[in-house]
Write a structure and sequence with these properties.
The chain has about 350 residues and is α/β, with parallel strands linked by helices. About 40% of the residues lie in helices and about 20% in strands.
């Protein structure tokens, strides 16, 4: 395997080991019974998400397949690592698709720096690349199709200020170093909170990691020193920037009898998180539109291949979901779980 950013990858592998990931399984599927090695008349479009387990990626795949059905003449080749901290595994996936000579790549990079080399290599091989979900540093691609993550963080911060009426103490459980999307969400949130001197951030330097299990453990470690003698918490609010950290933190609060007793704003949606919202154990979720992201990304790469103009930045939107708007038809459609 080629080496891109050796120090970054070495650190990434140490992180994967700490999370218990001693090598992760991956899946590769192609619709209509084709394989990447069999390149016929149809365009072969590789879609490489960050992982396979979160509801978010399953919904994104639905969007990609909707583009497949509407556009015709393409095959979607979907491959990912099972864990969202296997940077070297994702690099290998990209390299394999380059070797197989796909017509285009849609990539959600696990690390903004570590994936730069493979993206440049794809482009040098005349394979156009669309980046989705999370940015990659220092390389110009066909398009960046994603949520405006910093704006999403501001939305979450505004809601937290509203919930706390401008006063209180809060903590942030971050996701993972190197993930551009969640780092932007954290920045947007903290910048919004900084506008309100009545709110103090007690902790914002802890990381939950790529799985619910690591996030739950990190959440326990974060909240344990903040527990009062009666079992309640000495803080007033919690913010989490993605699906794994939000669900991991929800589990911590539920297990300790603290759910619903502290203001909780999270990011992303899954059936279990929506259940938490309905039970008033989560106050609000900033929800992306992964179906739209998958659809627009595939459409953009196909347009590029056919010589059509493509916007360099495509914002796929973010919506604040609360108990008050759950029944709105547009929100209901947005939070509907993936079909598979």
């Amino acid at each position: 395997m080629r080496r891109y950013g050796v120090m970054t990858l070495a650190a990434a592998m140490v992180l994967a080991g700490c999370n218990g990931g001693g090598g992760s399984a991956s899946t590769e599927t192609a619709d209509k019974g084709t394989t990447p090695a069999t390149k016929g008349a149809k365009l072969q479009i590789a879609v490489i998400p960050k992982g396979a387990t979160h509801e978010y990626w399953k919904s994104l795949k639905e969007g990609a397949m909707r583009a497949h059905d509407e556009l015709g003449g393409i095959d979607i080749l979907w491959k990912s690592s099972q864990k969202e901290d296997d940077r070297e595994g994702q690099i290998k996936v990209v390299e394999d698709f380059i070797t197989k000579g796909v017509d285009g790549i849609v990539l959600a990079p696990l690390d903004a720096t570590a994936l730069k080399g493979p993206v440049v290599e794809a482009q040098n091989a005349k394979i156009p690349v669309v980046i989705i979900d999370s940015a990659v540093n220092g390389v110009d691609t066909v398009s960046f199709v994603a949520t405006d993550n910093e704006k999403g963080g501001h939305i979450a911060g505004e809601e937290m200020v509203k919930l706390l009426k401008g006063k209180g103490q809060i903590v942030v459980l971050r996701y993972e170093e190197g993930s551009a999307s969640t780092m932007s969400r954290e920045k947007g949130f903290l910048d919004e909170i900084a506008k309100n001197p009545g709110i103090k951030v007690v902790s914002s330097n802890q990381y939950g990691g790529a799985t619910v299990e690591t996030a739950q453990k990190a959440g326990e470690n974060l909240l344990s020193p903040l527990k009062k003698a009666d079992g309640s918490l000495s803080i007033d609010g919690i913010y989490t920037p993605n699906e794994s950290t939000t669900f991991g933190m929800l589990r911590v609060l539920q297990d300790n009898g603290q759910a619903g007793k502290v203001k909780f704003v999270g990011f992303d949606a899954s059936p279990k998180l929506i259940d938490g919202l309905k039970a008033k154990q989560i106050d609000a979720l900033v929800v992306q539109n992964p179906r739209n992201m998958g659809y627009l990304a595939v459409k953009a790469i196909v347009d590029k291949i056919h010589g059509k103009p493509v916007e360099k930045r495509i914002d796929t939107g973010a919506t604040l979901v609360t108990g008050d708007n759950l029944t709105d038809p547009k929100v209901a459609e947005l939070i509907a779980p993936p079909k598979e």
